[in-house]
């Protein structure tokens, strides 16, 4: 931390200068741009008006929110079934209690969503009475202070509200708050930091990058081609009436009727001249862009309704999700690295409450992810039944992996009550 403070001449308001550094400003700007994109502020919306038949024409500006669909898919694919803690039974029991009281499974959703959208997420663990809770910090207002080895030294959370700047500066042992209400920056509070610095989740410690940056250019082209094609259909396919030869009678075809007739001299002709609409070319271009989007985003075609699965086997369907499994594994790695830091902070707070674990027991703590990949539930249950008959699996492990059981402990309690009732009636 000394090298950071030295850079800013050990000023008490060093954090103000830090957040104004160009790299921090560019990072926050990129976060804001991704948020605007997800709100529907796409490039196609800035398409300028055109002239058609001597009049100004406002072209189509069709927005495709595929990025939001992809983001929701990958978040739910990895975390919809929740995460399961494994390891020493006493350690897991205490941590499961903390997770349930602090709603950590919901917090995990917010963290992964931020990771995919912005390439970074920040979580602060704190104690609220006897409960241990987590707060996901908005990356737009978050400024991690790293040393040259990319180790977190401090953390700044800064935002503006009603023309007043607010700052929260996290140090390993203390948290300080400031604001400039009244025109001058001044300290408003100082608190003991029980859990230490916030947990950092990043897909690249040097330069976090949003997954959306890989999709935006493709989606922009899809929006451009479908908008321009729709315009072309209405503007250039209406047809121009062409009459060849001399009219024999009448004043021409009435403009206010749908039906009617026109009599032409011998050898005359009448037809509508129009451009041909190349449906095959449009379909080929759009399909190629869609396939590229699905491949790059690791999204199965079945998700977008681009594939008929009526005659596919379970193995074939599983193969469709192979790219999604790869992406889930990458996201799992980012989450897991942050979870180890989270667990250490929870352990420290539990120790203050009198709940302690030795290092060997605590080091067994791990996390198991269960993705949404389609599975044959009957086959899973049959396999577990075979293992149970062989004496190679416990009832508790069966409940953990049972696709029909959402709460292992609750189901264990129910089984125990049923067993007691049977014993009493027997």
TrEMBL record:
Superkingdom of origin: Bacteria
Pfam families, A to Z: SPP1_portal
InterPro entries from the UniProt entry: Portal_protein_SPP1_Gp6-like
Protein name, UniProt field: Phage portal protein, SPP1 family
Source species of the chain: Salibacterium qingdaonense
């Amino acid at each position: 931390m000394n090298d950071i403070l030295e850079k800013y001449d050990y000023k008490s308001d060093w954090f103000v200068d830090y957040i104004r550094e160009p790299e921090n400003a560019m990072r926050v700007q990129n976060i804001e741009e991704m948020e605007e994109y997800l709100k529907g502020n796409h490039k196609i919306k800035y398409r300028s008006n055109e002239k058609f038949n001597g009049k100004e024409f406002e072209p189509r500006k069709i927005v495709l929110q595929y990025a939001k669909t992809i983001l929701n898919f990958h978040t739910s694919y990895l975390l919809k079934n929740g995460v399961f803690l494994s390891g020493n039974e006493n350690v897991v029991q205490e941590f499961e209690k903390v997770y349930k009281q602090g709603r950590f499974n919901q917090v995990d959703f917010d963290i992964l969503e931020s990771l995919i959208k912005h390439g970074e997420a920040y979580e602060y663990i704190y104690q609220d009475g006897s409960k241990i809770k987590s707060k996901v910090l908005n990356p737009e207002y978050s400024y991690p202070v790293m040393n040259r080895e990319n180790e977190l030294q401090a953390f700044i959370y800064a935002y503006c509200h009603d023309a007043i700047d607010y700052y929260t500066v996290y140090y390993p042992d203390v948290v300080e708050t400031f604001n400039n209400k009244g025109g001058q920056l001044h300290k408003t509070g100082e608190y003991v930091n029980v859990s230490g610095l916030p947990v950092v989740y990043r897909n690249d410690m040097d330069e976090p990058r949003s997954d959306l940056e890989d999709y935006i250019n493709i989606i922009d082209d899809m929006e451009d081609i479908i908008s321009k094609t729709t315009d072309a259909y209405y503007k250039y396919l209406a047809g121009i009436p062409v009459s060849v030869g001399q009219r024999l009678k009448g004043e021409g075809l009435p403009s206010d009727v749908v039906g009617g007739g026109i009599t032409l001299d011998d050898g005359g002709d009448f037809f509508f001249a129009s451009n041909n609409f190349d449906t095959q070319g449009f379909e080929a271009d759009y399909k190629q862009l869609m396939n590229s989007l699905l491949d790059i985003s690791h999204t199965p075609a079945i998700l977008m309704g681009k594939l008929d699965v009526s005659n596919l086997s379970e193995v074939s369907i599983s193969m469709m999700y192979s790219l999604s499994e790869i992406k889930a594994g990458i996201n799992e790695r980012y989450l897991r690295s942050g979870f180890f830091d989270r667990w250490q902070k929870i352990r420290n707070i539990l120790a203050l409450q009198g709940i302690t674990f030795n290092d060997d027991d605590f080091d067994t703590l791990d996390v198991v992810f269960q993705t949404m990949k389609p599975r044959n539930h009957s086959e899973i249950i049959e396999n577990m039944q075979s293992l149970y008959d062989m004496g190679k699996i416990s009832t508790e492990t069966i409940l953990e992996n049972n696709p029909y059981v959402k709460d292992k402990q609750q189901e264990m309690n129910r089984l125990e009550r049923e067993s007691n009732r049977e014993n009493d009636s027997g």
